[in-house]
Amino acid sequence: MGVEIPASVPSSPGLRAMWPLLYAAWANRSLNRREINGLRKLADKLPFLTNADKLILMDLSDPATPPGRERFKLWETEIKRVAATLPEGHPPTLAELCARLGAEADTEHDSAWWAAQLPALQELEKGLGGVGEGVYRSLFDDYDSRVNRDSTVVNATTKAAKLQAIIEGESAEMMAYMREILQRPSFERHLKRDKDEYREQVLGWMQELADEGIGALAFDEPYGGEGSMYKYAYAMEALSYHDLSLTIKYGVQFGLWGGAVANLGTVEHHRKYLRGTGTLEIPGCFAMTETGHGSNVRGLETTAVYDSKTDEIIVHSPSYGAGKEYIGNALHCTHAAVFAQLIVNGESQGVHAVVVPMRNEKHELLPGITVIDNGYKMGLNGIDNGRIWFEKVRVPRANLLNRFGGIDDEGNYYSSIDNPSRRFFTMLGTLVGGRVCVPRSGLSAAKSALTIAVRHGLRRRQFAADSYSTETLLLDYPNQQRRLIPRIAKAYASQFALDYLLDRFVDQESEEEMREIEALAAGMKAYVTWFTTDCIQECREATGGKGYLAENRFADLKADTDIFTTFEGDNTVLMQLVAKSLLSDFKKAFQDDGNMAVLRYVGRRITTVLTEQNPVVIRQTDRSQLDTPSFYQYAFHFRDRRLTATLASRFRAYLKEGMDAFTAGLHCQTHMMAAAEAWIERITLDQFLAKVDSLEKGPEKKLLSKLCALYALHTIEQHRAWYLESGYIAGVKSKAIRKLVDMLCAEIRPDVGVLVDAFGIPDDLLGAPIGRKE
Known about the structure:
By secondary structure, this protein is an alpha+beta fold. 57% of the residues lie in helices and 7% in strands. Strands 1, 2, 3, 5, 6 and 9 form a 6-stranded mixed sheet that branches. A 3-stranded antiparallel sheet has the order 4-8-7, with no helix packed on it. It has a two-stranded antiparallel sheet with strand order 10-11.
């Protein structure tokens, strides 16, 4: 007794049969001396153990003489090898492994004889009732599917299907239809690095979507559509789980080109182009951005000069910098919506859109048009981006998209909007749908990354407390929880805020409301796509070397979404637009209400000082105060109000000093960014809370309430320096918030698999071996 037996000594069939039970007992280390003696009595009756086996077993089960590291690892390796041979769906039990290990080494008895020993082995396994589920998970890689769990989560408090129904809401039917289409054999993805081959594959997918009617969803019924912006947005969201090159090409063809015709054109243009656009008979491009001007649409150089003698419009690129840059569909298109400075009778009428035919029936470029392939990019190489120049290309006057401004039969310009500035922003406002849909696509990519990282973290083990402990699941490390779970919370928050944006966009009724929606779309586009970039990078790092393999999709997710932060408007520029909108609304409130607005503003400041910034409240650290909507919602609203008010004050002061508005804006630029972010975060939290409040009591509401609190408190923690500087919280409260974020991560950990399963991304679309559910 007490003598270590070298691991290299061959074991008898009987002792091999006991390895799974010995491994579980030592890995779990939960048995006391009395329990061990009881198990020894049961083992004494086993017919396959010899007297010599029983003596060795006494040593191997003695708490005072633990097995050496080599022996313990030998057990683990052999047990996992046998576990991998169990037929699919076979119960994951230690007893079954015992019988199989014994039968392998037994030359005297066959497998049927060993199967007859299962009842006795099951009795022994039952005696190890204190064995943690982690032991089983360490031995059976597919433990979850074998025990018929709803997800890869231990002790989950809710089911993924119910959460998915909450997330998808009215989009559920469309999302299910899109999943069915995208899982067809024709949509199978292949790792393609040749751009020309990849582009042809994407073009083929586009045609199949068009044949299914998916391309025309947002168009009115006379043009083959359903007049549903909702379904169009849901389609883009679903496509983004599959292939982002396909998503963006879909958006260019049916959203940008088709949207320009639908929103800037009149019935004649609709009849001529929309049905063919929806069926892909008329592939088009959206030629707005120029090499020399980027996001500065007002500064475009391309001209569209009306020639009254021929009743034509001459489209011309006067310089290299006037070339249309990064135009999607540039090589496949037959038509382009070209944005140019419209000049009529020698007078500029500002930026308008003109339909310009690009190619003939043989797909050859028409005279005066030059297209150069942008070539390989960081990502999205399935899209045929190109540069376009026009050399005095003539098109009929009827090709001017003239909903907001046109040229009459006498050759005179007309518009229902007299103010050129207002007309410009009205035209651009009709194209805000791109900014409504792009963040939904980015969020789909972030959800894919989170799903892959979480599922990997629920399977992959790394390091153990000692030689006899089961290695620790990655997601049981607090740091790994900190990396992923707050980002899951932010993904949910973003989803509900984007749904709110889509509802507002579809239901808007007035020009004033549309201006607010434009600001909201600009802010949400920036906020969510910045989150996408951050989230995918963190998930890649959280999956280590596995995440670096191309097969696990992080390379494509990172590369394909990187551009999301700069197309449809550079995020930094968009956030400044949001801030300018906030300043305008702030100024308007004071102009409209005069003294009453001043009194309300002062009243809120006094109330905040008395109720939220008094010496007691700023030092409160108990969870009952911190983990409540009344605390963190007030904190978000305070940051939003304070940053907007102080921005307005600074801006006004600079103007009083004689500074022009542009220079004053430069001095306040970083302040503007912070104010815009605070406004978007406040709206995002408000919508998360509204969603939670709309749910009936149950485990789903309880889980989402906790997730909402995590989003809010983690966001406050990220801004803790500002809150400390503003006197809204004291140092002790900041520390308490940090600790509470850690606690919430740990409490949500059991449900983390369910939370990503609820994104509803099938394995075939996820496309990452380490992220498969089954």
